[in-house]
Here is the input.
Amino acid sequence: MQNWEDPFAPLPETSAPEPKVIVPPVAAAAPMTQPLIDVKPVNPDDKRVVNGMTDINQLAPFKYPWAWEYFLNANKNHWTPLDINMAQDVSDYHHKLTMEERHVYENVLSYLTTSDVLAMRNIGLAVMEKMSAPELQIYQARQVYEEALHTWTYQHCIETLNLDQGEIYNRYRVVPEINGKIQIANRRLDSIMRSDIDLTDRDELHNFVMAYIFFAGVFEGCWFYNGFSPIFALQRRGLMKGTAEQLQYIMRDEVMHASFGIRVVRQIIQEENVTLDVNEMRQMWDEAEAAESAYAGYIMRDPILGYSKEDHVQQFRYIANRRAKQLKVAQPFPGVESALPWLDEQANLRKEKNFFETRVTEYQTGGALSWD
Ligand SMILES: [Fe+2]
Ligand SMILES: [Fe+2]
Here is the structure.
């Protein structure tokens, strides 16, 4: 049988009888402290997203039942990268992709691998500890796992295609156009990665809210969401379909991360009476657009069939407006139309598939998740 304490230990050749388990006699129980009989269950109305004083270990009654629903829904999109057949991708990458398409593919993976590590650290190390309602932390714990799963997925693609791992992973440090986006995210993360932040301080609270808006609305909501599109453009032409399917699963997670984060931020704004600084919001969108534009210029420096730098930037603006609407703030790029009318259909896992080429695992009702 598997040795769970040392899973790499060689298995015994013959099945020896199980060793007898000797149960030691139970020691006399220490006297317990009596619970206080006048302690009442947590009143959900007293819960707050941050700065709450209620017992963080008492899950229910919920003040934020929607957070629990997110957790239940997230568990419907349950998958691993091993579920998806990558055999055709190996052939496509080495025999069908042009040099320009390989450049796009590798740099998309390179950006995403680093970004997902960052996303995991943001939620798990900087955000979760500042939440004061457990139902929010439960979904965020799932989100931390999902970010790790996404990182595994990119690693699985990189290994399957036998790409140079050290070189791919290092690109965010040596390619300025990738580094620009990572630096912006790192700056936000560094500003909230302190456990001594006092969120009753209005400046600290405002900074935390802006960092949360950035990560949910821009980093996950726009950059991630938009970041998969170049691969979906290859998929539309029958190329790299395994990778694209992996990204479809990831995209479904990211859509939920973005909408959950936006909902949390709106709740904080309401509970703590936060007024967003209009100029700071404008700066955030402009900085995000400039970084995305530089990134698009690098990954699509030479044209590929069916996708362009202009498409990428226009789609960023279109998605940014969608996130602003969810945040209930002014749209940063009014009137911009979608550059990729095929995207929602392309990204939808429910569409017809060739079951001889891919092994699709539709868990429960995950395909019914909405794309907002
Ligand atoms: Fe992710
Ligand atoms: Fe995410």
Observations:
- The domain at 83-359 is CATH 1.10.620.20 (Ribonucleotide Reductase, subunit A).
- Confidence is low (pLDDT under 50) at residues 351-369.
- The pocket of fe (ii) ion (ligand 2) is lined by residues 119, 147, 220, 254, 257 (CB under 6 Å).
- The longest helix spans residues 241-271.
